[in-house]
Amino acid sequence: MSRDVAVLGVGMHPWGKWGRHFTRYGVAAARAALADAGLDWRDVGLVVGADTVRGGYPGHVAGAAFAQALGWQGARVAGVYAACASGAQALDTARAHILAGLVDTALVVGADAAPKGFFAPAGGDRPDDPDWLRFRVLGATNPAYFGLYARRRMALHGDTPEDFARVKVKNAAAGAANPLARLRTPVTAAEVAASPVVADPLRLLDVCATSDGGAAVVLSGLDFAGAARRRTRCGSARSPPSPRSTRARCPTSRTSPPTPPSPPRPRSPPPDSGRPSSAPRTRRPASAPRTWTWTWTWRRCTTCRRRWSWTGTRTWACARRAGR
Amino acid sequence: MGRGGWRRDTVAETRGGGLVHAGPGGQRRLRLLGTRCRGCGAVFFPREDHACRNPACDGAEGDLEEVPLSPRGRVWSYTDARYRPPAPYVCDPSRPWEPYVLVAVELTAERMIVLGQAAPGTGVADLAVGMEVELVPGVLHEDAEHTWTTWNWPPVAGGR
């Protein structure tokens, strides 16, 4: 039995410092993902929510918060909290439901409303909690731990601050190309080196910024995805066609290259090459029969940019040139 | 928080001495107090009093005894805090922030790494991975009524 699930759609709320409740970001991302999938919210069987706000009710029972914000429609609800791994754990939970056959479709939503500055524990005294003690007794913030690992790498493997700066330069270049990213300005290694130290040897530009935003994914089983694809292609989709649904109607709608088809044989000789009729024809030697040659290449659909199709280019050449 | 540091509040009722350990010959020197499982010998710091967390151990619940940790170790890594940490870190918010160095020390016998602040005035340039350090008492913060104590890991004098 396959352990794969299909990604029907994705959506994201821009990242920044907006100061709103985390459900605002999650709802925006969820609606974008549902539109991308061409799926109605009422057809979703499970919603899994992830939110990393600590303390109180961890994650604000994120799954139920998103289900309420999108509108109660009877879907199963699950919430996960795993700090920075919440999104991955939410995907895992949705995938397990689908593979278990409990639901056909799942909406996975993760959103954060991050505080300014260092992440800090919730109020109150918790001397039995090592994650509280490290702030109380040591002032060990999250960047401090990464500073310890960075210094250890420098001592053991010869890493340098210039090596670390290259990560930021690469990340900033990716952000500059993403209209939804928070930080969209390219950064040079010199700018990283000039930024103030936060936790030696890590500087301000080496450290992740804490941001507000949200992302969502629509997952389904492979059978449901195949049926959805066929419905979209023939135009008889259950839900009203979304702006993206037209892009699904590309020639093959495949998402991975299959084995190539057999090249068709031509029924008639190729047309004349266009030589002027007054030019003498050169006689083709009998030992060089004509033959068709098909060259097949994968091409990504230019509309949806996701699905692939075979494109054949037909040429004729003498058998000797064709290698036969 | 009461008189003394947090460790006194959590340990004083049982030991009365908090971090202070009576060594051989009646000497009193500072030692970090962890717990060790009587079944498998695994050591925990901060202390674990309920049940051994070694998955291979089949010891009974509560079969953990208090044990002082090694007073010396080697620097596993270090960093510093150039910006004021958030609450609940104990400090005076009205005074300008003075960075301190945070050290991760590897204890050989216990095969564990313990964090701690370096002695006041130590900079990252004064430390190196592999340097031998020893445990000494320190003060986290002091005001008119309370003193919050902690431990520091200065380099061993004359050592490397």
Can you give a write-up of this model?
The complex is a heterodimer of chains A (324) and B (160). The longest helix of chain A has 16 residues, at 22-37. Chain A has helices spanning 22-37, 62-70, 86-99, 130-138, 142-157, 161-176, 189-194, 222-234, 319-322, and strands at residues 6-16, 46-50, 76-80, 105-112, 197-199, 202-203, 212-220, 290-300, 308-318. Mean pLDDT of chain A is 80; it is low at 234-255, 274-279 and 319-324. In chain A, helix 2 (62-70) links the parallel strand 2 and strand 3 (76-80). In chain A, the strands form 3 sheets. In chain A, strands 1-7-4-2-3 form a 5-stranded mixed β-sheet, with helices on both faces. In chain A, strands 5-6 form a two-stranded antiparallel sheet. A two-stranded antiparallel ribbon of chain A has the order 8-9. In chain A, 31% of the residues are buried. In chain A, helix 1 packs across helix 2 (62-70). Chain A is built from 9 helices and 9 strands. Chain A is an alpha/beta fold and 324 residues long. Chain B is mainly β and 160 residues long. Helices cover 6% and strands 36% of the residues of chain B. In chain B, the strands form 4 sheets. Chain B has a 4-stranded antiparallel β-sheet with strand order 8-7-6-9, with no helix packed on it. Chain B has a 3-stranded antiparallel β-sheet with strand order 4-3-5, with no helix packed on it. Chain B has a two-stranded antiparallel ribbon with strand order 1-2. In chain B, a hairpin with a 4-residue loop joins strand 7 and strand 8. The longest helix of chain B is centred in the first third of the chain and has 10 residues, at 6-15. Chain B is globular. The relative contact order of chain B is 0.18. The model of chain B is unreliable at 1-18 (pLDDT under 50). At the A-B interface, helix 4, helix 5 and strand 5 of A face helix 1, strand 6, strand 7 and strand 8 of B.
